[in-house]
């Protein structure tokens, strides 16, 4: 998928595999739940491959076209349309994009106290300003927590000085 595949005017058979935009390939840790979901998807795709036989273009993609060109990478526009449809059915914000989970994941990492360096490594960022400016949308609760911590610090300083 994006940024790995390029389509010439959305013709499935005319794709070119490209490197990630910042040329960084990396390995990230995932939890057992996500791993289990990926294994389930792989099992479903293996069953689909068997049904399609020689018609299936097996190049190891995870998200593939299952209609017109079985096994070819899914067109990015298709991903966007599916997400919009799911959001509408779920009565959620339809302005979300396929990139939105990456932003949310990053904000949740920051809320969980994961260091900027670890977040940068996970995202493949070399420059911390990109991570800070674009991705690190710290939530209201995190901002409130900072205010409470500062207030507690000031209370302890006042108590030391008055005691």
TrEMBL record:
Q: Return the InterPro entries for the record.
A: DNA_brk_join_enz (IPR011010), Integrase-like_cat_sf (IPR013762), Integrase_catalytic (IPR002104)
Its domain of life reads Bacteria
Q: Tyr recombinase domain spans which residues?
A: 1-148
What are the transmembrane regions? none
Q: Does the keyword Magnesium apply?
A: no
Sorted alphabetically, the keyword list is: DNA recombination
Mention any Pfam family matching this sequence: Phage_integrase
What is the name attached to this protein's record? Tyrosine-type recombinase/integrase
Classification of source organism: Bacteria, Bacillati, Bacillota, Bacilli, Bacillales
